[in-house]
Amino acid sequence: MAANLQQQRTINEQLRREVGIPRIQVSEASMLLMQYVMEHESDDCLLSGFTSQKVNPFREKSSCNIL
Amino acid sequence: MSESALSASNANANEKMASLLKEAENLKTKLEEERQKLNDVNLSNIAERLEQIAYVNIKPRKVLKGHQAKVLCTDWSPDKRHIISSSQDGRLIIWDAFTTNKEHAVTMPTTWIMACAYAPSGNFVACGGLDNKVTVYPITSDEEMAAKKRTVGTHTSYMSCCIYPNSDQQILTGSGDSTCALWDVESGQLLQSFHGHSGDVMAIDLAPNETGNTFVSGSCDRMAFIWDMRSGHVVQSFEGHQSDVNSVKFHPCGDAIATGSDDSSCRLYDMRADREVAVFSKESIIFGVNSVDFSVSGRLLFAGYNDYTVNLWDTLKSERVCLLYGHENKVSCVQVSPDGTALSTGSWDYTIRVWA
């Protein structure tokens, strides 16, 4: 019982802390997420591709060899 | 204690418990109200003006074959070239992902190595699983690796995930004993334990570009918790999933997290708004999600499913961009390379694939 009480006290403390944290509007958070993505899209090779396949370290090596 | 005194003390404890439970209920209602107050629009509405992602040029590039059973976890080396993988076969393999060569292989005295992680220096790996332990190996010759291994910490159930938070000196682990723990590598001392989940901890991730004091955990109790590593406290808790949370990952901006669950959905939670801001699911997707990771801008979320596919989600528009086919069994782990140029996927089909 004492252990359960202690556990529940910990849970309540956590909930009290959580209720008190500062929050922003979802619209504002969404704008910030979008802004971050926009600023980093050009560096995102999996999204935007490579400027040239030559710089892709995982590309297949050309099968044509100069003899 | 006399019988009457004992029953009085019991009654007293019951009363205290009842009042604590009532307070908890009130606090939960209040928390939900506070979160709802600021829920003015949807992220996907805000992102409507963005152009759709028309085409993603990601192709299968490499297949890493060598494990003799299910691949359970992989991790990219900080050098962006090597990959470590751990398997049900009890082996740990270090691959050169450029050439597909196996550079090292270590057999552990356990099967189901559920987690493996490179140290920030790239000179050590931490791993463990059904042995309940986190073990560190130096990356040298195979013989020396086995000889110089060191057990750092032990849980009371399987270790499901591990990560180096700041340096080679500390390891953070998550376990089936429903706790997370921070260990000192040198002394094996338990620096901090994290209690709060009521189910197995399945995944952890570290907040990026910060002082390294915040991490997230996902659990079979269907929750994702944000923790303060110093105090050991839960700072924020996110619910919404209908089943086990198998994977958690920080958005590269550090202010949001993505989750993947057995309920066949992925979700995006914003920590500033303190709530779920997107759900990535489709009626046609009925299989569980084992692992998620973001592309470096955070626009794409890669998710590995039990139906052998990897789905690419547009995190802003909440739309599926495309699917990656190739694996012949459940996709257990997905991870974008440190520079964001490639994606590794591990599967129960015994292989690891690299996409770029």
From TrEMBL, chain A:
<dbReference type="GO" id="GO:0007186">
    <property type="term" value="P:G protein-coupled receptor signaling pathway"/>
</dbReference>
<keyword id="KW-0488">Methylation</keyword>
<dbReference type="InterPro" id="IPR001770">
    <property type="entry name" value="G-protein_gamma"/>
</dbReference>
<dbReference type="GO" id="GO:0031681">
    <property type="term" value="F:G-protein beta-subunit binding"/>
</dbReference>
<protein>
    <submittedName>
        <fullName>Guanine nucleotide-binding protein subunit gamma-1</fullName>
    </submittedName>
</protein>
<dbReference type="InterPro" id="IPR015898">
    <property type="entry name" value="G-protein_gamma-like_dom"/>
</dbReference>
<dbReference type="Pfam" id="PF00631">
    <property type="entry name" value="G-gamma"/>
</dbReference>
<keyword id="KW-0636">Prenylation</keyword>
<keyword id="KW-0449">Lipoprotein</keyword>
<keyword id="KW-0807">Transducer</keyword>
<feature type="domain" description="G protein gamma">
    <location>
        <begin position="1"/>
        <end position="67"/>
    </location>
</feature>
<dbReference type="InterPro" id="IPR036284">
    <property type="entry name" value="GGL_sf"/>
</dbReference>
<keyword id="KW-1003">Cell membrane</keyword>
<dbReference type="GO" id="GO:0005834">
    <property type="term" value="C:heterotrimeric G-protein complex"/>
</dbReference>
<comment type="similarity">
    <text>Belongs to the G protein gamma family.</text>
</comment>
<keyword id="KW-0472">Membrane</keyword>
UniProtKB/TrEMBL annotation, chain B:
<dbReference type="InterPro" id="IPR015943">
    <property type="entry name" value="WD40/YVTN_repeat-like_dom_sf"/>
</dbReference>
<dbReference type="Pfam" id="PF25391">
    <property type="entry name" value="WD40_Gbeta"/>
</dbReference>
<feature type="repeat" description="WD">
    <location>
        <begin position="194"/>
        <end position="237"/>
    </location>
</feature>
<dbReference type="InterPro" id="IPR001632">
    <property type="entry name" value="WD40_G-protein_beta-like"/>
</dbReference>
<keyword id="KW-0175">Coiled coil</keyword>
<dbReference type="InterPro" id="IPR020472">
    <property type="entry name" value="WD40_PAC1"/>
</dbReference>
<feature type="repeat" description="WD">
    <location>
        <begin position="152"/>
        <end position="193"/>
    </location>
</feature>
<dbReference type="InterPro" id="IPR036322">
    <property type="entry name" value="WD40_repeat_dom_sf"/>
</dbReference>
<dbReference type="GO" id="GO:0007165">
    <property type="term" value="P:signal transduction"/>
</dbReference>
<keyword id="KW-0853">WD repeat</keyword>
<dbReference type="InterPro" id="IPR019775">
    <property type="entry name" value="WD40_repeat_CS"/>
</dbReference>
<feature type="repeat" description="WD">
    <location>
        <begin position="324"/>
        <end position="356"/>
    </location>
</feature>
<protein>
    <submittedName>
        <fullName>Guanine nucleotide-binding protein subunit beta-5</fullName>
    </submittedName>
</protein>
<feature type="repeat" description="WD">
    <location>
        <begin position="289"/>
        <end position="314"/>
    </location>
</feature>
<feature type="repeat" description="WD">
    <location>
        <begin position="64"/>
        <end position="105"/>
    </location>
</feature>
<dbReference type="InterPro" id="IPR016346">
    <property type="entry name" value="G-protein_beta_1-5"/>
</dbReference>
<keyword id="KW-0807">Transducer</keyword>
<dbReference type="InterPro" id="IPR001680">
    <property type="entry name" value="WD40_rpt"/>
</dbReference>
<keyword id="KW-0677">Repeat</keyword>
<feature type="coiled-coil region">
    <location>
        <begin position="10"/>
        <end position="44"/>
    </location>
</feature>
<comment type="similarity">
    <text>Belongs to the WD repeat G protein beta family.</text>
</comment>
<feature type="repeat" description="WD">
    <location>
        <begin position="238"/>
        <end position="279"/>
    </location>
</feature>
